[in-house]
């Protein structure tokens, strides 16, 4: 897994022309409430580069047709573009084969797919599913549904005061009954980078299959599946600078092959009769119906864009922003940051003493600064820190130190307005 030291080394050797990168994202160049936009809600969804917008337009203007079943030119072009996006996702993750890439609606659907198919086929009453205390609801509720259906039990590795799960705690919660361990690579609420390779090793030793929720890591770290060692990995297109409504489930071929289908319908079958239906080979077995063709093509364009930029360089630049931001915000009186993990990304979950997070976000919006206020679909970790919600600023490689300063000034204005 990329760590802060190796990322910092990459940063030192390669300059990052942030203004050139920003020029690729038209949405960043707008005024909001009379101020240049400062977009700090990247953990919720990221802005899109021109390459993605062009890929979407090209599909709808030139190649718009259904895939896998048309012999005409447009159908062939659409199919080729869709399958090329699959190969791009394979390369982006370092997966062994394109057939291990399943297009889904996003991380949420990818996790639901694994719970509903692998989980339902393999879990029995008394089995255990291990999660951590910092999971997104998308990596909690599908497992609770599975537990209800099978009689399995959800166990939770608890988070310490810094916002980390310690290895001893993780190991303590593992047992010979653990069938699945599912955890986020990076917490969307705290920015904690989890040691997923080490956790995976421990979970495998206990006999569990491992799913990594990569919704927050795929946009911010270079991903090498072989280094992570997991069995399933999920991420969302819209957070990796691609379209909404598309995402990826990667799974080991032998697991995907053994899993029952998820949804039934067109494309996922080999043959259908009222007596007996047989299923298509992977990944098509899991892609019932007409998929989000434009979305997959747009996602492919986003991943190609990221590969051209270089994920290690982007991560190195973001690491610098993370350190700068942490220092700048820590210096503000009355502002507290939830989550102080030793390995973290540029996500700042803030509490302004005496001011409701929604009020903080509303004042920042009047300054053209977009942040998120709420529980970030991670209520258990909010409970853990004893807050109902936080104001979250989440950065990407197109943000600048100047924008961090604008955030800090905005927070000072909040305190002036609320006189706290
Ligand atoms: N997991 C994590 C860690 C996330 O941050 C998110 C989105 N906030 C999800 C899962 C769900 O992603 P999506 O809504 O794109 O399916």
Verbal overview:
The chain is α/β, with parallel strands linked by helices. It folds into 2 domains: 2-42 and 311-415, Aspartate Aminotransferase, domain 1; 53-308, Type I PLP-dependent aspartate aminotransferase-like (Major domain) (Aspartate Aminotransferase, domain 2, 3-Layer(aba) Sandwich). 42% of the residues lie in helices and 16% in strands. The chain has 15 helices and 17 strands. It has helices at 4-13, 18-23, 50-63, 73-93, 107-122, 141-150, 167-173, 196-205, 225-228, 253-258, 293-309, 311-330, 357-366, 379-384, 401-418, and strands at 31-32, 35-36, 38-39, 101-104, 128-132, 153-157, 178-184, 209-213, 232-236, 247-251, 269-271, 278-279, 335-338, 347-352, 369-370, 372-374, 390-394. It has a 7-stranded mixed β-sheet, sandwiched between helices. A 4-stranded antiparallel β-sheet has the order 13-14-17-16, with helices on one face. Helix 9 (225-228) links the parallel strand 8 (209-213) and strand 9. Helix 3 (50-63) runs antiparallel to helix 11 (293-309). It binds 4'-deoxy-4'-aminopyridoxal-5'-phosphate. 4'-deoxy-4'-aminopyridoxal-5'-phosphate binds at residues 43, 106-108, 136, 138-139, 184, 188, 213, 215-216, 236, 377.
